[in-house]
Design a protein that fits this description.
Elements (H helix, E strand, L loop, with lengths): L11 H9 L2 H15 L4 H11 L5 E5 L6 H12 L2 E3 L1 H6 L3 H12 L5 H12 L2 H6 L1 E4 L5 H9 L6 E6 L2 H8 L2 E3 L6 E3 L8 H6 L8 H21 L4 E5 L4 H12 L23 H12 L6 H10 L3 H10 L5 H9 L1
Parallel strand pairs: 1-3, 1-4, 2-3, 4-7
Antiparallel strand pairs: 5-6
Helix pairs in contact: 4-13, 7-9, 9-12, 15-16
C-alpha cells in the first residue's frame, strides 16, 4: 500500500482482495467516466454505469491498406464473439433520427470527428456491444479523431496496429479480389477459393491501383504515429509479412491478456532453478532493487533447526539428506 505520514495498519488481506477483484481499476473507470460526463446526478450515473460495466472486449484494429485488417477483424470477431464495427456498418445501423440529422454529411462523406464519435458512442451503448464487446476496424484515421474518442470516454482495452513494408503491401494488393455477392475477400496467391463458381465472380476492388494505393499509404503513414501516441498504453504492433494464421494467433494472444493496469500491486515472485543456477543471488538482487522481502526456504529451514523448534527438530534428519521438501510449505506458511 502507499506510504503516508502516519502509517496505516491495513491488513494484507485487504490489498489481496482489492487486487483479486480489480477494485482499483473499477474506481479508475468510475472516476474517469464521472470527470468526462459530469452528470447532474453522480450517484444514479454510477449505478447505471455499474449495471452495464462488464469485462467485455474493446479493441481497435488499425493498419495500412492491404494489411488484412478486415479479414483479421472478422476472424477475431468470430473467435471472441465481439461485435465487429467499421465505418460502413456504423452508418448503416444508424437510427432514422440520426440519419436525418447527419444525412447531408453522410451523403457528401463529410462527417467530422465529433460526428463519428457520436455515431460510435450510440452504437457501442447498444445491448449487444455492452455484453459481447466490440472491435472497431480502421478507425480512428487521425490524431484528431483519436482525441475525440478519448475525450468522450471511449477507451479501447487493446489496440492492434498491423505493420508492413510499403513495397510488400503494394505487391499484396495486386492480388486482392472481392466476392460481390457477400463481400468476402480472397487473394490470387494466398487465399484462392476452391469453388469455380466463386472464382468466376471475383472482382478487383475499387481504388486498388498502384497509384491509388500509394496515395492511401502516404495518408496512413502521415497520421499513424499521432494515433499510436494517443493509445500507446494499449498498443501492440504486429508485422503482417508472415502467414495469416501466425498473424491472427499473435493478435488473439494479445487481446486475450488482461488490459494493462496502473493499480498498485504486492509483488509475489517465485524463483525456480537447478542447484548452482544462482537463485539466491538473483533473489537478493530483486529484493534489494524493489524493496521487497526475500523469503529463502533454506534460510528458514536452517533457522528452525537452529532454534530447535518442533518443526525444526522434525526437519533436521531430512535436511541433511536434502529430502526436506515435504516440510517446506509448512515452514513458509508458519
Amino acid at each position: 500500500m502507499d506510504q503516508t505520514t502516519k502509517p496505516l495498519l491495513i491488513p494484507p488481506q485487504f490489498a489481496q482482495y482489492a487486487e483479486k477483484h480489480e477494485i482499483f481499476e473499477l474506481y479508475q473507470r468510475m472516476l474517469s467516466q464521472l470527470i468526462i460526463h459530469k452528470p447532474e446526478e453522480p450517484l444514479q450515473f454510477l449505478i447505471d454505469f455499474l449495471k452495464k460495466d462488464v469485462n467485455s472486449p474493446a479493441i481497435l484494429v488499425l493498419g495500412p491498406p492491404a494489411s488484412g485488417k478486415k479479414t483479421l477483424s472478422q476472424l477475431l470477431s468470430k473467435k471472441t464473439g465481439a461485435v465487429l464495427l467499421n465505418q460502413n456498418s456504423l452508418v448503416e445501423s444508424l437510427p432514422n433520427n440520426m440519419k436525418n440529422e447527419l444525412g447531408e454529411k453522410i451523403k457528401n462523406m463529410n462527417l467530422q470527428p465529433n460526428d463519428w464519435v457520436k455515431i460510435i458512442k450510440h452504437r457501442i451503448e447498444d445491448y449487444d456491444c455492452v455484453r459481447k464487446g466490440w472491435i472497431l476496424e480502421s478507425f480512428p484515421e487521425s490524431r484528431v479523431q483519436s482525441l475525440a474518442l478519448l475525450s468522450n470516454g471511449i477507451f479501447p482495452k487493446h489496440t492492434v496496429v498491423l505493420t508492413g513494408e510499403d513495397s510488400m503491401l503494394i505487391e499484396r494488393a495486386a492480388g486482392k479480389r472481392i466476392d460481390p455477392k457477400n463481400g468476402e475477400i480472397y487473394h490470387t496467391t494466398f487465399d484462392w477459393p476452391n469453388e469455380s463458381s466463386i472464382q468466376n465472380r471475383l472482382v478487383i476492388p475499387e481504388k486498388y491501383s498502384e497509384e491509388d494505393l500509394f496515395q492511401r499509404l502516404m495518408h496512413y503513414n502521415r497520421h499513424i504515429e499521432g494515433i499510436i501516441d494517443c493509445f500507446k498504453a494499449t498498443t501492440k504492433k504486429i508485422n503482417v509479412d508472415q502467414p495469416k494464421g501466425d498473424v491472427f494467433n499473435q493478435i488473439l494472444d494479445y487481446v486475450s491478456r488482461p488490459a494493462r493496469s496502473q493499480a498498485p500491486i504486492t509483488p509475489r515472485i517465485l524463483l525456480i532453478g537447478p542447484y548452482g543456477s544462482g537463485r539466491r543471488t538473483q533473489a537478493s538482487a530483486l529484493a534489494k532493487k524493489y524493496d521487497i522481502v526475500n523469503v529463502s526456504t533454506s534460510s528458514l529451514i536452517k533457522e528452525a533447526i537452529a532454534n530447535e523448534t518442533v518443526l525444526g527438530l522434525a526437519i533436521k534428519p531430512h535436511f541433511q539428506r536434502r529430502s526436506a521438501s515435504n516440510f517446506v510449505t509448512k515452514i513458509i506458511f508458519k
